[in-house]
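for the recovery benchmark. tokens below, seq after
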């Protein structure tokens, strides 16, 4: 049996050549008859669909992935996973590299590619942290999402509650959710 595995980090990752649809099409073109796919970070090895696949695949089967970073982003985890599959008698075909086996040259190629994937992940993390630090240094910085409703809108909604309207009625009139109204009511009580 030839299995395929495709993964994107986020469901919105659509137009970069790594979309689930593009990966699935490529895997089918290369003979995969059963494909597991998911939107899940590659930074961790325990992924729901991958776990199901790893429990189902057996000796003599083949696993196809389009690129090495689709199966793992960490050198140690990726190398360990591929080595485990090879030791179980499963062929691992990484389409942009070829069939992986336990020859020294294949091991070297695997280690180098996972090292580059891990380096890329670390660089993304570093750039993200630098961007956050820069944003925090600017005046008026506020962590998290900006508020959806102004103080005036919340005052109006809480005034309606005080005058006897129910939370549902106020939510319907103001389009402020009941949970936001509860939170704001509790927050103001705690301020007193």
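predicted aa per position
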């Amino acid at each position: 049996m030839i299995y395929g595995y495709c993964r994107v980090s986020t469901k919105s990752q659509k137009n970069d050549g790594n979309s689930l649809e593009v990966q699935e099409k490529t895997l089918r073109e290369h003979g995969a008859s059963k494909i597991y796919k998911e939107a899940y970070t590659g930074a961790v090895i325990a992924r729901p669909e991958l776990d199901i696949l790893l429990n189902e695949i057996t000796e003599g089967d083949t696993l196809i992935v389009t690129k090495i970073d689709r199966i793992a982003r960490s050198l140690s985890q990726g190398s360990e996973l591929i080595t485990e599959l090879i030791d179980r008698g499963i062929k691992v075909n990484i389409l942009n590299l070829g069939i992986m086996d336990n020859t020294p040259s294949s091991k070297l190629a695997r280690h180098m590619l996972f090292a580059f994937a891990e380096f890329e992940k670390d660089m993304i993390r570093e750039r993200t942290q630098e961007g956050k630090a820069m944003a925090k240094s600017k005046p008026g910085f506020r962590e998290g999402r900006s508020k959806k409703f102004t103080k005036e809108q919340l005052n109006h909604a809480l005034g309606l509650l005080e005058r006897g309207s129910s939370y549902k009625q106020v939510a319907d009139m103001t389009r402020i959710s009941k949970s936001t109204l509860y939170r704001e009511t509790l927050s103001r009580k705690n301020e007193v």
